[in-house]
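Pipeline run #58 for the internal structure catalog. This entry was flagged by the ingest filter as a single-chain record with no existing model, so it goes straight to prediction. Upstream metadata was stripped on purpose; only the residue string is passed forward. Reviewer on rotation: M.T. Logging verbosity set to normal.
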Amino acid sequence: MRNIVFTLPMPMSFQTANVDRSPVLMLCSVLRFPNESMRIVMVTIIGAVLGFFIGISFPSVSITKLHFPASFVSYIQDKNSALTTQALLNHAWTSARNARGNSTEQTSNSTLKIYVPTNPKGAEGLAPGIVVPESDFHLRRLWGDPSEDLSFKPKYLVAFTVGIAQKENINRAVKKFSENFAILLFHYDGRVTEWDEFEWSKRAIHISVRKQTKWWYAKRFLHPDIVAAYEYIFIWDEDLGVEHFNAEEYIKLVKKHNLDISQPGLEPDRGLTWQMTKRRGDREVHKDTEERPGWCSDPHLPPCAAFVEIMAPVFSRDAWRCVWHMIQNDLVHGWGLDFALRKCVEPAHEKIGVVDSQWIVHQVVPSLGNQGQSENGKAPWEGVRARCRKEWGMFQTRMAEAEKAYYKMMGITPPNSTLV
């Protein structure tokens, strides 16, 4: 049998250099094959090994990602063309490089997509620097530089719910509030232009919707994010005498005594329902009182403490954020709300109080009652009053059921009662 020796062409550099042949070549040179079949097997193995090493020297290419241009396809189909292996590899390499670039671009686009979960709901796709979650009632110009619109910003807000019949009384009340207060009027009778005779009315905010109450307005137009610019929010009725009231002095006392929810003391001769809101002449502020026997199960609970009425409440910005969420959309009169205000501050018997040295008089003008409708032979105000009482019961039931459901969810035994 003849001995067969396999050798591979040696590069010129190896031929001229005084070096030994590679181990692979030496191995091949000494191989001896007993027959033709063995030779074929060995050639196949050596070819596979060489193909493997050649293959790993190229980047991985997915055949499904090889996209050839139409001109190249035409070139392949041309019978007269001589397509070389080198040309095919060049086009394959270019296609693979482009595919890798597209993949990198897709990854980059995914990385650049903005998503900020701490942004307000619905605004997660915005960069935080462009998000403006709060607003105000500051009036702005239609011209000029926006940064020059406001030479002065009011720090407080007072909102009155008004009808034209109380125009003069409101005029006297507004004069008790300095320029530090933004003025907002809710018009329940639809008459707005008649207020233009007052100079202050031209800078006030007027919102007109017929036959609605101040709590209906408050729920819809005094969202906490809308009034966030104001330290204190006054939400007052229209029939209040303010001869002995000064708003700036009131604010000083509220801050001094750390009151988050308050009201001016009421002159005791008229319109007094609760002892807690009765003015005391021997002090600046009081936070508790004694009521009729059996009315107060706890001296720290309403109506003996942690209590003001809904005719002339004043809220700090933080307290109002809580109270606004407690106001029910469909319960427009607010009855029962005064007993629940304590849910929004802690400790309530310290943070809720009556300012005695700045007092008002409740004139008891049934103007809103006259906006009702006569039914079954009853006067309009009687239907309004019946609705008020019904809403009070509904609010109490909702609050009790909501708290009961919460305690059950938390596995806590609820107290016997949380509302009066």
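catalog note: Residues 12-100 form one domain.
catalog note: The longest helix spans residues 380-410.
status: ready for reviewer M.T.
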